[in-house]
Structure formats: structure tokens, C-alpha cells
Design goal:
The chain is built from 8 helices and 5 strands.
């Protein structure tokens, strides 16, 4: 999972998982040829026990990467939602994912690489997808990230600031709310607005429809 999604939105580490040809070590040390191993893609995804409840997004700037194509094809065979993000014309794509996001970045400034502006464009697309997903599952309040835990001084300061701005409380009350909510801004907001304790706030957040009743 991208660290910024986990830290900023308080997601479970297993909610968004990154899989790369050759394994995590290839993030720091290049291993040429691993992207050609189709069988490895299926093994890697099978290890995460993906199912129809999952969405698999394949990333391949050229649209031809065997590892990515095999991974998306395997996911589709299991009934997963499938997406491909490419930086090339989708015509001739050998598989048919549910959604194709083609980013027309044009030729690279330096011929011979597809990992510069193509990579940047794909990262932007992934940011939009993950941010939209976080909004839809209730990780924000308006345009604010509120599902964070005050586990460092920086995050504690941000949490107090959010509570003061959103609820109109003073610094002392913001600190008390954070303490009672065990550092959860989202829980603290519900506790204050619904005049309830932490357990009741957590129940209301688990059953969102309750928050809007009466």
C-alpha cells in the first residue's frame, strides 16, 4: 500500500496492496527480466488470496508487460474487477479488463525509456483513484482528512487544529476530546456532535446511516 494512503487516511495495511514483478526488493535494486514472468504474476496474486471482492489494477506504460497482463488476466478469471493503466494506445491490448485508463503522455523527452513522464502520469492516476476511494468509504469530512490517529506530535497538532476548526472548540476541549477518543479525530467529531461516549461513536461510525437519523 502507498504509505501516504495508510498514514493520511488511516487505512488497514491489507486494504490496498502493491505487487511488483520480482518482489519488494526490486523497488531498490533493479532485476531485469522479471517483468516477463507470467507465472510469477499469478503466484504473487494467489498469495494474497484475491477474490471477487477485490479490484486489481495493472500498471504497464507500454501495454505489453507480460507480468502485468498475466496478473490482470488471472484476476479477471477469478471475477475480480480489473483495470489497466497504460501510456499507449489501447488498440491491440491482448486482454480485456473492465476499465482501461489510457494516458496520452506522448514520446518521452529521452527516447528509450517508458519510466519517466509515463511513470509520473500513472502515479497521478493512482493518486486520484485512491483519494476517490477514501472519500467514498468515509475517510474524509468535507475536504478534510479526519480519519487519522494522533500518534506523533505532528499528527496530534494537526488533530487539535482540525477539531478546533470543525467544531469551534478551544484548545483545552480539543485535547480532552482527543484523549477521550484515544487519539481518533473521526471518533472525536462524532462524540462531540452526537454528545456520546467513544463506544457509541464507534458504533455510529460502523453504522453510518444512524448518524443521520433525527
Amino acid at each position: 500500500m502507498p504509505p501516504n494512503v495508510r498514514r493520511h487516511f488511516g487505512t488497514d495495511p491489507g486494504q490496498i496492496i502493491g505487487v511488483i514483478a520480482g518482489g519488494r526488493e526490486t523497488l531498490v535494486v533493479s532485476r531485469e527480466g522479471v517483468e516477463d514472468d507470467r507465472q510469477a504474476a499469478e503466484r504473487d496474486l494467489a498469495a494474497h488470496e484475491i477474490s471477487v471482492r477485490d479490484i486489481v489494477i495493472g500498471i504497464a506504460a507500454s501495454r505489453r508487460t507480460p507480468y502485468t497482463l498475466a496478473g490482470v488476466s488471472y484476476a479477471k478469471s477469478l471475477g475480480c474487477g480489473t483495470v489497466m493503466i497504460i501510456c499507449n494506445d489501447a488498440t491491440g491490448l491482448e486482454i480485456k479488463p473492465d476499465i482501461v485508463i489510457a494516458l496520452p503522455v506522448g514520446p518521452e523527452a529521452i527516447t528509450g525509456s517508458t519510466r519517466m513522464k509515463s511513470g509520473t502520469a500513472q502515479k497521478l492516476a493512482l493518486n486520484m483513484i485512491s483519494t476517490t476511494a477514501m472519500v467514498l468509504i468515509g475517510k474524509t469530512y468535507g475536504n478534510l482528512m479526519v480519519d487519522l490517529q494522533a500518534k506523533s506530535e505532528k499528527l496530534a497538532a494537526r488533530s487539535r487544529k482540525l477539531l478546533i476548526e470543525l467544531l469551534g472548540v478551544n484548545l483545552e476541549d480539543a485535547n480532552k476530546l482527543l484523549e477521550r477518543s484515544e487519539g481518533s479525530v473521526k471518533t472525536a467529531i462524532v462524540m462531540h456532535t452526537r454528545h456520546c461516549d467513544r463506544a457509541q461513536a464507534i458504533r455510529l461510525l460502523t453504522e453510518p446511516t444512524d448518524i443521520y437519523r433525527g
